[in-house]
């Protein structure tokens, strides 16, 4: 009764974070009803989205151009000696919106999961270590801006052990972020308080 392509689209959309089977179904049928105004432009945007590259320094996506750096890492006015480690790209957007941080970022993409074997080895920390060791005479601060959950704390501990060998000063966002909270959904005032009270 229902075309197979609809089932296929629903399954693929349902794999996205925070979207269940019912929501995916509603999205697919909504796209069908608005082919010209939403679906067709969306297909074009998705094709362009796949052309984005990861920044060689922080892993944030950017448009292909001569430099391999994103606009933040390439900005000469950003403080290159303060690096904030975050889990995902949406965390960066939330922190940038607060307009309190003028350093650069390093996007992990995931956290250490204690029930997944070898999950702590999935991170490619090499770009971060290169940034730290390029000018060792300059004192650098690494800020852990991971959500205060069990996996966030475990990830910070794991990476902190690696960074200890490189003589860098590490801090964590302070009070303001509740236990079990998520950086992405935190309001600007709370982000500012957590950043100001980092320790």
How do you describe this structure in short?
The chain is an alpha/beta fold and 199 residues long. It has 8 helices and 6 strands; from the N terminus they run αααββαβαβαβαβα.
Helices and strands, with pairings:
Blueprint: H1 4-14, H2 21-33, H3 35-49, E1 53-54, E2 61-62, H4 71-74, E3 82-86, H5 89-98, E4 104-107, H6 126-134, E5 141-144, H7 150-163, E6 169-172, H8 188-196
Parallel strand pairs: 3-4, 3-5, 5-6
Antiparallel strand pairs: 1-2
Helix pairs in contact: 1-2, 5-8
Keywords:
single chain, 199 residues, alpha/beta, Helicase, Ruva Protein, domain 3, 4-stranded parallel β-sheet, two-stranded antiparallel sheet, globular
Please explain how this structure is put together:
With 199 residues, the chain is α/β, with parallel strands linked by helices. It has two domains: 4-49, Helicase, Ruva Protein, domain 3 (Orthogonal Bundle); 68-196, Dna Topoisomerase Vi A Subunit, Chain: A, domain 2 (3-Layer(aba) Sandwich). The chain contains eight helices and six strands, in the order αααββαβαβαβαβα. It has helices at 4-14, 21-33, 35-49, 71-74, 89-98, 126-134, 150-163, 188-196; strands spanning 53-54, 61-62, 82-86, 104-107, 141-144, 169-172. It has a four-stranded parallel beta sheet with strand order 4-3-5-6. A two-stranded antiparallel sheet has the order 1-2. Helix 1 crosses helix 2 (21-33) and helix 5 (89-98) packs across helix 8 (188-196). It is globular and about 65 Å long. The chain starts with a helix and ends with a helix.
């Amino acid at each position: 009764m229902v075309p197979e392509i609809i089932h296929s689209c629903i399954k693929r959309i349902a794999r996205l974070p925070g979207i269940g089977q019912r929501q995916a179904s509603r999205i697919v049928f909504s796209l069908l009803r608005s082919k010209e105004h939403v679906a067709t432009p969306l297909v074009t945007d998705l094709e362009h989205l796949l052309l984005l590259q990861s920044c060689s320094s922080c892993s944030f996506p950017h448009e292909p151009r001569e430099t391999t750096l994103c606009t933040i890492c390439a900005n000469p006015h950003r403080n290159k000696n303060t690096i904030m480690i975050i889990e995902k790209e949406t965390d960066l957007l939330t922190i940038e919106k607060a307009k309190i941080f003028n350093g650069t970022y390093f996007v992990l993409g995931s956290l250490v999961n204690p029930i997944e074997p070898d999950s702590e080895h999935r991170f490619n920390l090499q770009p971060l270590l290169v940034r730290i060791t390029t000018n060792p005479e300059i004192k650098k601060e690494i800020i852990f801006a991971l959500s205060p959950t069990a996996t966030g704390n475990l990830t910070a501990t794991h990476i902190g052990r690696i960074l200890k060998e490189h003589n860098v000063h590490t801090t964590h966002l302070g009070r303001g972020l509740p236990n079990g909270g998520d950086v992405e959904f935190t309001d600007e005032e709370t982000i500012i308080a957590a950043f100001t009270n980092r320790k």
